[in-house]
Amino acid sequence: MTKLELIDHAILKRADFPKPGIQYNDVAGLTANADAFAATIDLMEAYAHTLHVDRIAGIDARGFAFASPLAIRMRLPFVMVRKPGKLAGTVFSKDYVLEYGVGTVCIQTEDFRSGDSILVVDDLFATGGTVRAACELFEEHGARIAACLAVIGLPYDGYEKTLAPRKIHTLLSYERY
């Protein structure tokens, strides 16, 4: 079995969650399988080594599960992108539009510097709205986005258009079921 097959097999496909007609691709099965989790970080690291990266940023909360071990493996600083009220000290924040409202992402001001090259990591790209907001927040404060990286991509939800023109890489891509 290849690493990608191992990863795909470990991801739990849950029909009709959180509502009828949705297939939820649950990475909890992936992180609970040590071999599949290690394979995921191996493949993410191989991709990250093709880029110039100063810091790894993870999107709250499942992005942390992948960005953190990747940062450790690459001996790079890890930056947490969180919801409001979750980070101490001075933060930069950015609002973005959700399907039914507004979300906000925040980054501590001392966690990166102008000129840094950032790899933004999440578990799954669907619409790409949260990741785009994180990218724009870094960019507005002088950082450069090396790429956006996720375990799973759902192209039918439009993340590629939302994140353009940034580099985007996913380990797996799922079509509608």
DSSP strand count: 9
Helix content: 25-40%
Summarize the main sheet.
Answer: 5 strands, parallel
Distance between the termini: 23 Å
CATH class of the domain at 53-173: Alpha Beta
Mean pLDDT: 96
List the strand order in the largest sheet.
Answer: 4-3-7-8-9
Residues in β-strands, percent: 25-35%
Total count of helical runs of at least 4 residues: 6
CATH architecture of the domain at 53-173: 3-Layer(aba) Sandwich
Stated plainly, the CATH topology of the domain at 53-173 is called Rossmann fold
Structural class: alpha/beta
Order of helices and strands: HEEHHEHEEEEHEHE
Shape, per Cα inertia axes = globular
Cα gyration radius (Å): 16 Å
* Unreliable residue runs: none
Q: How do you describe this structure in short?
A:
By secondary structure, the protein is an alpha/beta fold. It is 32% helix and 33% strand. The mean pLDDT is 96.
Describe this structure in words.
It is a single chain. This protein has 177 residues and is of the alpha/beta class. It has a domain at 53-173: Rossmann fold (3-Layer(aba) Sandwich). The protein is built from six helices and nine strands, in the order αββααβαββββαβαβ. It has a five-stranded parallel β-sheet, with helices on both faces. Strands 1-2 form a two-stranded antiparallel sheet. The two termini are 23 Å apart.
